[in-house]
Amino acid sequence: MKFQNTILLIILFAIISCRSFKEKHDKPLVNTSKKELDSKLPQTWYQKDFQKDSIKGISVDKWYKENKQKSKTNIIVAVLDTQIDFNHEDLQSQFWTNPKEIANNGIDDDANGYIDDIHGWNFTSNKKEEYVVWGNFEYVRFIREFDPIFKDKKENEISFQDLPNYKEYQRASKLFESENTGYGRWLSSLDHSITMFPIVKDTLRHYFPKEDYTYVQLDSLYKKYKINDKTYRQMRESNDKDLGALIYYMMINIKNNEKTIEVLQDNRIEIDSILNRNLNKKFNDRKLIGDNPNVLEKGYGNGNISISKKGFKNLQGHGTKVVGIIAANRKNNIGIEGFSDNIKIMPLNISYSGDENDKDIAMAIYYAVDNGAKVINMSFGKEFSVHQQWVSNAFKYAEKHNVLLVHASGNERFDNDKTPYYPSDNNYDGTPEICNNFINVGSISKRLDNTFVSAFSNYGKQNVDLFAPGEEIYTTTKNNTYGTDSGTSLAAPMVSGTAALIWSYYPKLTAVQVKQIIMDSGTAYDLEVIVPGTKDKKVPFSELSKSGKVLNVYNAMLLAEKVSKMKK
């Protein structure tokens, strides 16, 4: 998972010439009762009723207010993600338990190929419960895979059958050079900031003894003392130490929310790890796991889906956010409310800092299907796929067994019809869709104006099916806390929760029917929106997805009832 993914240590591209992290850092809030949350609309807006020109929620509350029936059918939702906070107060009683497995006896009691898989499986760990923290980006894996075949070769030297992979290799190489250069500059910027920080602090203390300066105050001081119009990069590269430059360095720190030396040092560790692990062609991210990444087989990982281990970075944040949206306890009067207490979560750990491995994705899907999941949530993505066929076959296996796949469209701000984004039901080779049980979800905000579509969200008239709330979403997070975050990673579980809710009442519906119900029952919005990734290009909202709609739980439940009766 590229930490954004879901999320942002932001350093401006224009200043340091590279991308920002792919996921915001967790911002935990204090525990909050449901009564208090109801008075804080911005935190729970996505659950509220749809109201014209006002609240743009998905009408979960409306359905629960009007519904008088009770469901007794439990639905398992597999969450392919990071590890999760299994002990979170608002997730108790919400996890799937393998009824055929005896805990911690070291025996594969149900003979499914996984020993002590009580609540799910960790595909990113080993038998010692050590786990992968950093993995390669997929384009690095792609280059490493095809370097022996394509390195230093021109297109006219490539056979016709190898041409598609050659073009992907070229695309991956171009992206690698851009990212490697950008993150290298970022690291240089942080090194410079760390070196200059004590000098800058001491200098500014002369003007602000209490160190209580603001960006505006520094800007005014900078205009008074600057001796040239150099950019930050020019100042940094020439190691300027005049008063104007020193003031400007702190202005940059404030703008990037790097106000202390500790934050700068932490960020340096992150960027150094990206360069030396994510982007390192020689880095073996499977060494710790000990498997063969080129063979699709069981026998690796372990059953602990929530590991806290000294010396290992806690990776439970993203997965816990996703799980809370889907299935946080609705009756405990704390935290938030998921879509239904009849949902049981099956955590399948495949994510870390980097891109998910196709082997883990495929194996997790097979595990989910074989162990009873009806919905599989995938809040992750990547721009390349080394073993796409493995994942495609797993998709078809899920389709054959009537399991719905829900995927986040991505936070890259591009058109998924033009730029590949995996995993996908599209081969991107002009052939028909791989399966009919896959839903791709973009993100919208609560603003009913031209910024209605989240600026970070991917889109696509053919390859994004619909939109759901994914901006400023209040949910559970690691260390038994709550926080607000944004990303298509948080829009996808809205759809997964809805699908599970539908099935809990109408279990005889097929995956294809549930998908179509969700798409057909959405709310249409007649407005022009800014296309993500552009400054001000506007198109009708309906042109950014296949359905042209936003998820609406109330409408979906009504349509599901109607379709279910027709089926009978």
Query: Low-confidence runs (pLDDT<50, min 5 residues)?
Result: 3-42
The level of helicity is 25-40%
Integer-rounded radius of gyration: 24 Å
Order of helices and strands: HEHHHEEHHHHHHHEHEHEEEEEHHEEEEH
Structural class: alpha/beta
The N- to C-terminal Cα distance equals: 43 Å
Number of helices: 16
Please describe the biggest sheet, giving its number of strands, its sense, and whether it closes into a barrel.
Answer: 7 strands, parallel
Beta-strand segment tally: 14
> On the 0-100 scale, what is the average pLDDT?
91
Measured by DSSP, the beta-strand proportion falls in 5-15%
In which order are the strands of the major sheet placed?
A: 3-4-2-5-6-7-8
Summary of the model, kept short:
With about 575 residues, the chain is an alpha/beta fold.
